[in-house]
Amino acid sequence: MLSVLRIRNISAPNSACSALRRAYTTPAPKWNTTIGLELHVQLSAKQKLFSPASAKWDDPANSNIDLPGRFLALDGTVQPTSAFDRKHYFYADQPLGYQITQSARPIGRGGQIELGSADGLSYTRRVRIHQLQLEQDTAKSIHNVYPGYVLSDLNRAGVALVEIVSEADMCTADEAAHYVRRMQTLLRHIGVSNCNMEEGSLRCDVNVSVFRDGDDPLSGTRCELKNLNSLKVIRGAIEAESARQIAVIESGQTVGQETRGYDARTNTTFLQRSKETAPDYRYMPEPDIPPVRVTEAWVDAVRNAMPELPDRLLARVTEHYGLLRDEVETMMGEPGCIALFEAVMATGKHDAKRVASWITSEIFGQLAYRNQKLADSQLTPQLLDDILDALANSQVTSAQAKQLLIELMDGDKRKVGELIEAHGWRVMDDQSELRNIIAVLLEKHPNEIADYRAGNKRRMNFFVGKVMGATKGQAKPQDFLDSKPE
Amino acid sequence: MDEFGMGSKTIFSIHGPTVNPAAASDDPGPRAAGGSSGGSAAAVAAGQCRIALGSDTGGSVRLPAAWCGVVGFKPTYGRISRHGLVAYGSSLDTVGVLGRTVDDVRAAFQAVSVSDARDMTCMTQQVRSRIDRLVAQARPPASSVNKPLSGICIGIPAEYWVDELSDTTVDAWRSGADRLASLGADIVSVSLPHTKSALPVYYTIALAEASSNLARYDGIRYGRRSSEQPPNEATNASQKYANTRSEGFGDEVQRRILLGTYVMTSAACQQFYAPAQKLRRLIQQDFDAAFALPNAMHSGNRSRGEGVDALLFPTAIGPAPKLDGSSEESRVEAYVNDVMTVPASLAGIPAVSVPAGVSKNGLPVGLQLVAQYGDDEFLLETASRLCS
Question: Where do the Asn/Gln amidotransferase domain residues begin and end (chain A) (predicted)?
């Protein structure tokens, strides 16, 4: 089933000599890594999972029960009957002494993500989804604020979380990172989560084991790396951990089943909990919550309400508007962006390349500067259409168009036309006035004229600058370049 | 009541035991009120109130009702919302009603038996309507005035005929059956073969759930917190939990949490908890086989079959024991008191205990009527006739 990709041939430092010796005699053993991921995805639901309490302090109550159903986007199946379990342990991060989760009867099973050329791989790797379970998030534990104390923020406790458990189908740190990125794109796109690793709305645990060429890929003892909170950390932790396990085995010891953490500063993993000290979670069926039954009609309704999935969207937009794949992918990275693009394109007035480049350079630049999401900005298709119209009709220069964008994103409620008027902007399209200005300039700078006439064509830039200065930037360079010095 | 509803005598309380007010004045010593809702039963028996609420997980409303000589009703699981009730065994917990007469109990029950979105195990209006239709189809209203129970079949389960039953209790059982027969009911013997498993199954499931439900009292978000400083930095957190929970919980509660925790551990789960869940289903199926009315939870819309309408058997093996400890039993024997009441709890079916006379030294004896899932109204109707 697994076409094993050879990824590393690491000789641990303390066995470097023996590895060298082997290199001359027998081929060195080739080590491979097996990786499975558990992604914890915080649902963008307004309410907590089993409580009417708001999941976000300022949101009105609302029901979002179709959110888990949208995981159909992974091509798995929603189980007709799923049920909740209690997982017990004492820790300050959950107020009940147990977490409500799903183990034996999860809401989703199956599905996959296929990694390939779109991810920059020269091969395809199918990562199967084992199961998808709904559970309660824990409280946020805050360490090292008050020495000797751990602070608990219970606002997060009970917020709906989906854990996506992959099969151990990945073989490199690179694949794991691509898998996470693809999942992020997909889940943001279908609107179930903002999947922000820094904010913790996407958290990742990784299971790593190693095996020699020819062995069963699942034969190694796996260690779980907990709470890896960026793609860089995921990569680093997997590489450090597989190197550690290989070193352990090559030194003649065995890898123990452990939960480990990763220290990015030293690029090493460290023991958190061994199997012997692992808590007994005493799983039991949650007696306060009846099983969840969903009908086929409900599943169909969710499926039909699902937005176009990223792969199809990418193909369609690229082809239909004649854009580059990169441009479309960049736009897809920002939720709501493709909708904005298509709404502006629907006016039938604008060139696709121009709109896309305006969005990805000017608008994204402003969003980045403001640290803002498109969805939270003041920008509407109408405003963008108006700006691009003004630009196309030569009412403003591109510098002024950017200024308009800034003011509109600052929250100026005036219409584009009103703003242009208020600024007194108006591209100088009065050719006779422009001629007068140029005539004055030419009279003032006879030496530069002579230089230009003598063949120094770059002197033109000098005059362009002078004209723009004299007109306070309101002239369009193209206009007077066309009316070259006669 | 007993702390967290854990007890059968209302003796495990920081306020001291509840004394049974129904005992005769020449009785040699204070008697147990029964438990865990002994306070509710005693208050009704003493005339302090007409009705009282109690919680019934394995008999905590019915047993004190029997010992105090009042009516105690445990409705079908899910009839009354558990919102606001401190959970003991969530899959068994019901809110029950106690009163001097069946009619009072019935009126109170009808007022609180409504759906509640805050308790997911509380029956929705849709489920209630479905049960009502099922019951209406299965049983025509009584027609004869003199023989109101004609056409009704009452079962006497053989497995409840245990050696420990007191003579008074056996006599009360006999006269109860006679009374129902005189009202026109057919009295038949039935068998509920898995009854003998009910007590261990009950204590496995109830205590497992209790250990889980009480886990929240760790002194952080809920419950008091021990002020004792653990000596060793390394075991700081777990020692703090241990101190807090050892100080906060009473002995009986700690005993039950430990037992419940044990049966859930990965080593013991397959030996205790998993088989208990299977046996629970068999016990419930015994009842389904005995009743003519199909179980609305499990049988879809199957129409009325062969079987009985209700079962009649004692609520307790004998009248109230003394509080002073002269009738001291072992801890295991104390649990045996629940043998008559836990099967209905495990099956989630309605059961009512009604006064059925007194023993020769003046102590009340109770008889239990038990009916199919959802058949609460019929059960109360029959109980009312038995008492009339």
Answer: 339-481
B365's enclosing H/E stretch is: strand B364-371
Q: What pLDDT, on a 0 to 100 scale, did the predictor assign at position A87? A: 96
| Cβ atoms within 10 Å, residue A147 | 6
CA distances from A210 to A243, A292, B144, B269 (A): 9, 38, 81, 33
Q: A321-353: per-residue pLDDT in tens? A: 999 988 998 898 888 899 999 999 999 999 999
Distance from C-alpha of B184 to C-alpha of B187, rounded to nearest angstrom: 9
Write down the ipTM of this complex. Answer: 0.90
Contact list, B298 vs chain A (CB under 8 Å) = none
B374 touches chain A (CB under 8 A): no
What does the alpha-carbon distance between residue A470 and residue A479 come to, in Å, rounded to a whole number?
15
Q: DSSP strand E in B49-141: where?
A: 51-56, 71-74, 94-99
CB contacts under 8 A, B 31-90 vs A, are 87, 89-90
Catalytic residues of B: 36, 60
Q: Min CA distance, B268 vs chain A (Å)?
A: 10
**Per-residue pLDDT for A173 more than 60?**
yes
**Chain B hits for A154, Cβ within 8 Å:** 221
- The alpha carbon of residue B42 is apart from the nearest alpha carbon of chain A, in Å, by 30
Q: What is the pLDDT of residues A73-94, one digit of tens each?
A: 888 899 999 999 999 998 888 8
What residue spans of A191-295 are helical by DSSP H? 231-250
- What architecture (CATH level 2) is domain B3-387? Alpha-Beta Complex (3.90)
Confidence at A307, pLDDT banded by 50, 70, 90: confident
C-alpha distance across the termini of chain B, in Å: 30
Q: Do B220 and A95 lie within an 8 Å CB cutoff? A: yes
Across the interface, of A97, A280, A288, the residue whose CB is closest to B121 is A288
Residues 6 or more apart whose Cβ sits within 8 Å of residue A350? A344, A385, A388, A392
Q: How many helices and strands, by DSSP H and E, does chain B display?
A: 13, 8
Chain B residue with minimal CA distance to A100?
B212
Q: Which of B121, B215, B273 sits opposite A96 (nearest CB)?
A: B215
Other beta carbons within 10 angstroms of residue A78's beta carbon come to: 21
**For chain A, how many helices (H) and strands (E)?**
16, 19
- Chains A and B form CB pairs within 8 A to the count of 53
Other residues' Cβ atoms within 10 Å of the Cβ of residue A334:
18
Mean pLDDT, rounded, for A139-143: 84
Using CA coordinates, name the residue in chain B closest to A284: B264
Domain boundaries of chain A, sorted by first residue? 13-293, 308-423, 431-482
Name the average pLDDT for chain A: 84
* Closest among B34, B90, B44 to B71, alpha carbons compared: B44
- For A431-482, the fitting CATH number among 1.20.120, 2.60.120, 1.10.10, 3.30.70 is 1.10.10
Q: Quick: pLDDT tens for B201-229.
A: 999 999 999 999 999 999 888 888 888 87
Domain boundaries, chain B: 3-387
The DSSP result for A68-136, as a single string, is GGGGGGGT-EE-SEE--EEEE---TT-TTSEEEE-SSS-SEE--EEEESGGGT-SS-EEEEEEEEEEEE
Structure letter (DSSP) for residue A363? I
Q: Per-residue pLDDT averaged across B230-249, rounded? A: 80
